[in-house]
TrEMBL record:
Protein name (database record): Urease accessory protein UreE
Role noted for this protein: Involved in urease metallocenter assembly. Binds nickel. Probably functions as a nickel donor during metallocenter assembly.
Residue ranges constituting the UreE urease accessory N-terminal domain according to the UniProt record: 3-67
InterPro entries documented for this protein: UreE, UreE_C_dom, UreE_N, UreE_N_sf
Annotated organism of origin: Aureimonas populi
Subcellular localization, as worded in the UniProt entry: Cytoplasm
CDD domains: UreE (cd00571)
SUPFAM superfamilies tied to this protein: Urease metallochaperone UreE, C-terminal domain (SSF69737), Urease metallochaperone UreE, N-terminal domain (SSF69287)
Length: 165
């Protein structure tokens, strides 16, 4: 089987891509897994450590071909504030709960969660259900990516900061 042990970060591949692979955010956080590109190229992803493959990254196959990573649209919440300062305040509250978030100039994209929606709306933010590619910010602890269902697990101690849970 063809192996892939390296990733070319987005914007660094200068040639043509051999194919694409379209994955949601959860499927893009990988270390080792058999995969099949959108056009049918089967390969074994075998990275030295788990990482989040980003939209536009290239998976370098051992035969020299490069597969472009595409982010599959997912059901998300689009969070907006009244103004930039209010949006920053909402971002702080989301970050305080260790939520994966894609932060843009005028909105924040997060996974759908009824409790979080109620919190954001209670803080005066607007929440809209959208289908979009989810490419969350890496953050200070990006190498210890927390997956859905691991609530309460943190890759760091709590001595340096305090927050609500």
């Amino acid at each position: 089987m063809i192996a892939a042990e390296n990733v070319v970060e987005r914007g660094r591949h200068t040639g043509d891509f051999a194919d694409t692979i379209t994955l949601d955010e959860g499927q893009r956080h990988r270390r080792r897994m058999a995969m099949v590109s959108d056009g049918g190229i089967a390969f074994l992803l075998n990275l030295p450590e788990a990482r989040l493959l980003r939209e536009g990254d290239g998976i370098l196959l051992d035969d020299g071909r490069v597969i472009e990573v595409k982010a599959k649209p997912e059901a998300l919440y689009e969070v907006r504030g009244r103004d930039a300062v209010h949006l920053l305040n909402l971002a702080w509250h989301l970050g305080n709960r260790h939520l994966a978030a894609a932060i843009e100039e005028t909105r924040i994209l997060i996974r759908q969660d009824r409790v979080i929606r109620e919190m954001v709306e209670g803080l005066g933010g607007t929440v809209k259900e959208v289908e979009a590619a989810f490419d969350p910010a890496g953050g200070a602890y990006a190498s210890a990516h927390v997956h859905e269902g691991e609530a309460g697990h943190h890759p760091h101690g709590h001595g340096a900061h305090s927050h609500d849970h």
